[in-house]
Amino acid sequence: MDTSPRPQADQLPATAALRHLRPEIRAMRGYTPGEQVRDCIKLNTNECPWGPSPAVAAALRTISDESMRLYPNPLAQGLRTAAAARFDVQPSQVLVGNGSDDCLTILYRAFLGAGSRVACPWPTYGLYETLATLQGVELVQVDYLQRGGTWELPSILARQAARMVVIANPNNPSSTLVDVTSLRQLAYELDGILVVDEAYIDFAATDASMLPYLDRHPNLVVLRTFSKSYSLAGARLGLLFAHPEVVTQLEKVKDSYNVNAISQCLGEVALQDRDYHRSLVMRILAERAVLEQACRGFGWSFPPASANFVLCEVGERAGDLYRALKARRILVRWWDTPQLRTKLRISVGQPQWNAAFIAAVAELLPGLGA
């Protein structure tokens, strides 16, 4: 019998706890967000380059102590009603999340169990893969059909025996758009749930959203976010739209008070200031055109952009250019993966940020031989 003294808790190695982790968690690659570095030009995380509506700042100053003391409305009823009015749906078709990532987590929890499959076209938003691992389900990645400058939806998506298919539209990182006709056809063919993640839809064509078709496709779920065109990434707000009976079931799955009182208030105000939102989108589209013209001048190609960023084919020195820009405190997004390592994703910034990026690239390219 071992009579040696047991070590104190603070003397135990970390492995004493880590060995209890689920094996798939230890093996998985965690989702890697874009770098968050202070005092630099950030063209890497697709945030809005300008601030939110002045009405949002005014509302923030009116938040009372009582709002902080009490739990927030568990269903964010005020924001739910405001979203219904803004997007011409019923409040019963809206679920509010702590960012659209929270809405995705709720969907994975609700629809996917042991042995389930989720499918998505690839490459796309990396969190879809992370959530599949966390939920213990299989992710089926079906490559986009890349023809020239287009990224077309693979027709075999509906035939993957997946309980849920997730499509970012416009897609991240390609900034490409799938037309409504193709998405509706997929909804008809799919024996499962079709989730269309419309985080960037406000920068796309006016008739690109699937929201008008909610009533015609009971298996359709549409996601929106306040992080991009409403400039509220720090508030963490997302919206989920679906059939009322689906929303009722999803309410069982979400965290009890998943959206705080401050964010609920700011979201309501942001939705109501339609003129500011419209002007913000127009400014971003104007700067996107400037950025696209400069990238063409560098000899780079890219798919037609429908989001607030451009995915440029830079060549084999893309990683070197990313590092050289970072050394100048200009951040863009680069992935060291087979499908993306020759590309840079560049978010649209304010005019002076875009100008600094363009000038830096013009100086750096000759030295890189790119």
Which strand order spans the largest sheet, edge to edge or round the barrel? 2-10-9-8-7-3-4
The pLDDT mean sits at: 93
Question: What's the end-to-end separation, in Å?
Answer: 69 Å
Cα gyration radius (Å): 22 Å
List segments where confidence is low: pLDDT < 50 over at least 5 consecutive residues: none
Query: What spatial form do the alpha-carbon principal axes imply?
Result: globular
Strand content: 15-25%
Number of E-state strands:
13
How does the major sheet shape up? 7 strands, mixed
Instruction: Report helical residue fraction.
Output: 25-40%
Number of helices: 13
H and E order: HHEHHHEHEHEEEEHEEEHHHEHEEH
SS content category: alpha/beta
What does the model show?
36% of the residues lie in helices and 15% in strands. The strands form four sheets. The protein has a seven-stranded mixed sheet with strand order 2-10-9-8-7-3-4, with helices on both faces. Strands 1-12 form a two-stranded parallel ribbon. Strands 5-6 form a two-stranded antiparallel sheet. With 370 residues, the chain is of the alpha/beta class. β5 (145-147) and β6 form a beta hairpin.
